[in-house]
Amino acid sequence: MFDKNQLTILTQELDSNRIKTREKGNINLSYIEGFDVIDTANKVFGFGNWSYSISKLDQVSQELNQNQNNVVCYKAVVQIQIHNTNHTLDVNRQDVGFGTGVAKSLADAHEGAAKEAVTDAIKRCFRSFGNQFGNSLYDKTKNHQNSAYQQNQNQNYNQRQPQNNQQQQQPYQNPNQTRNTQQNNSSFNQYEYQSLFNLGLNIVENNGFLIVTGDDIFSKKDSIKACGFRFDSKSKTWYKAIEQGAA
């Protein structure tokens, strides 16, 4: 089915630098990102030697959360096909994935949920090929939190600790702010984004917009969306216009 080189790659241990971690409830979950799975598939099977098709993409639920954001959930059924060097079907896998979209705009919530469901299904299909696609992450007896994540957590914790009374009153630090203003003169209500600060993120003012900065932003996208921020694919940043008259 697979040649010697492919089997060699597939049987290698998963590089800990590829493992990401996010919080869900009170549990830290380990995972590899969707783009990583696709890059690995291209590396192992070759460009053009694999493909996927969406068998089903259904909305599961829709509601408003406590912040009046739309919360939409989708379910996707995806099938992947792997072809040999003669471009004939060699292997196929099928699995189900779920995705949740949280946004002020209903359209954005649907978009986010649908994309996340398809990506989740693709990742679950590929996990049947072993460690390189994250199957080992499902082994509950192993500790998959890598040292890089732990260092980021420690760094974020240290940044959140108040060094004096003034910093305790003004929790957001904005070293990248382009305007020469003091934090206590910020044109937005800093405490409105306390949930983001608790995740180790910062809010930066730039030309009439608020920009989210910090480490491992992608894994915290649901919390960022819940605060009304939108993602700009060109600059790869989360942004939000500063509301006029905001405290």
How would you describe this structure to a colleague?
- The chain is α+β, with helices and mostly antiparallel strands.
- The chain has two domains: 4-139, Enolase-like, domain 1; 169-241, no CATH class.
- 28% of the residues lie in helices and 29% in strands.
- It is built from seven helices and nine strands.
- It has helices at 4-10, 34-45, 106-126, 147-160, 165-169, 194-198, 221-226, and strands at residues 20-24, 27-31, 50-64, 70-83, 89-103, 202-206, 209-213, 230-232, 237-241.
- Strands 6-7-9-8 form a four-stranded antiparallel sheet, with no helix packed on it.
- The longest helix has 21 residues, at 106-126.
- The N and C termini lie far apart (64 Å).
- Residues 146-155 and 162-185 have low confidence and may be disordered.
Extended strand count:
9
Quaternary structure classification: single chain
Q: Helices and strands, in N-to-C order?
A: HEEHEEEHHHHEEHEE
CATH topology of the largest domain: Enolase-like, domain 1
Unreliable segments of 5+ consecutive residues = 146-155, 162-185
As laid out across the biggest beta sheet, the strand order is 6-7-9-8
Assigned CATH superfamily of the largest domain:
DNA repair protein Rad52/59/22
Largest sheet: 4 strands, antiparallel
CATH class of the largest domain: Alpha Beta
Helix run count: 7
Protein name: Rad52/22 family double-strand break repair protein
Region (Disordered): 157-184
Pfam families: Rad52_Rad22
GO biological process, one term: double-strand break repair via single-strand annealing
